[in-house]
C-alpha cells in the first residue's frame, strides 16, 4: 500500500467541520512524527486515548513524552478501555480536563483509539466551548473501516447504545492499517463484521474478496487488509457526503444494527463486541428478508454460510444470551432504536446483494427470526 489520501465534502455544521481529509499511512504508526508533541508554535493538542492503546509498543514512545499528562503545551488524557467507558461521565472527564488545562476553542482534540475513543472524543469536541476541531487516529479495524468516518459522535446512556450525541466530523483521520496487528482476534473479527456489512451494502468486489479470501483475511494478510480498509473508507465517505444527517441512504449503514444494538443491550454493553452483535444482526435481517420473500433464500443461505467461515453467530437464538424470553427482550430493546418513529420497528432489509431498503415492521413479523 502506498501513502495516499482523499477528501470528503459536506455541508458545514460548524466551522472547521466542512471537510475531512483521510490519510492512509502504510508505515508503522509513528505518532511523534505526525504530531510532534511539545513543539512551541501552532495549535495546542488535547490527546485522548485509552489505557490499552496507551500501552501498545508502537504508541509508548509517544505516550512516554507526556509527564503527568503534559508535554509542552499539549496534553494527553488516558481513560479506561472499551464500551463500559463510552459514558457521559467519560465525555465530561475530557471536557473538565481540557478546561482545567486551559484549552481554547481554536485548539484541537485528537482521539487515538477504537470507536469508543473516536465517538466520545468527537462528542466532547462538539460541546467543548461550543465546538473545537477534532482529529482521529483509529487503532481498531472497526474504527478504520467505519466508526472514525462520517461524524457521528456520542455515548451510551441508561444501558442503551448511542443515546446522546452529535454530528461532528473530524478534520483529519490518520489511518495506519498496521494497528490491526496487535488487535485481539475478537476485536479484529469485530471490525471484519463492519467491513462485511460494507460488502453486502455497496461493494460486490469486496463481497468476492470475503467469499474467496477468507484464509488471507483471517490470517491478517497485509495485502488483503490494505485492500479492505480503503474500500470501506471510500464507500462510507460516499454515503456520508450524500446524506450526512442520515435522512435517507445513510440509514442503510445501520444494516444489522437494529438487531445488533438490541443484542448488546440484552447481553449488557461491553459483554459482546459491537461487530459480533452487528454480524448476528445481519444474519437476522437477511433471514427476515428471505422469510418475507424480499430476497431469495439462496442469497440468504450463501451469506449465512460465509458468515460461519468467520465465526459469526447465525442462529435466531444468539448463543451469548441466557435466560428466558430472549426474543421478547430483544424486541423490547429494538423499540428503543433511534430510527423508529412510531410503534413499529424500522429495519434495514435486502432484496439481494447491494440492493437494500428500509421497512417498518410489527413485532409479530420479526419474532419468528428470533427463535
Ligand atoms: N460513530 C460511528 O459512526 C460508529 C460506527 C460503528 C461503530 N461505532 C462505535 O464504535 C464502538 C466500537 O468500536 P471498537 O470496536 O473500535 O471498540 P473500542 O474502542 O472499545 O476498542 C476495542 C478494544 O480494543 C482495544 N484496542 C484499540 N486499538 C487496539 C490495538 N491497535 N491493539 C490492541 N487493542 C486495541 C481498546 O482498548 C478496546 O479495549 C461502539 O461503541 C460502536 O457503537 C461508531
The number of E-state strands comes to 12
H-E string: EEHEHHEEHEHEHEEEHHHHHHHHEEH
The largest β sheet comes out as: 8 strands, mixed
Estimated share of beta-strand residues: 15-25%
Give the helix level as a range of percent. Answer: 40-55%
Bound molecules: nicotinamide-adenine-dinucleotide
- The chain-level mean pLDDT equals 94
SSE layout and pairing:
Layout: E1 4-9, E2 19-24, H1 31-35, E3 45-50, H2 51-54, H3 57-63, E4 70-71, E5 74-79, H4 88-100, E6 108-113, H5 115-127, E7 133-138, H6 141-147, E8 152-157, E9 160-167, E10 172-175, H7 185-202, H8 204-212, H9 214-218, H10 222-242, H11 257-267, H12 274-291, H13 297-309, H14 326-334, E11 345-352, E12 355-361, H15 363-366
Helix pairs in contact: 4-5, 5-6, 6-7, 6-10, 7-8, 7-10, 7-12, 11-12, 11-14, 12-13
Bound molecules: nicotinamide-adenine-dinucleotide.
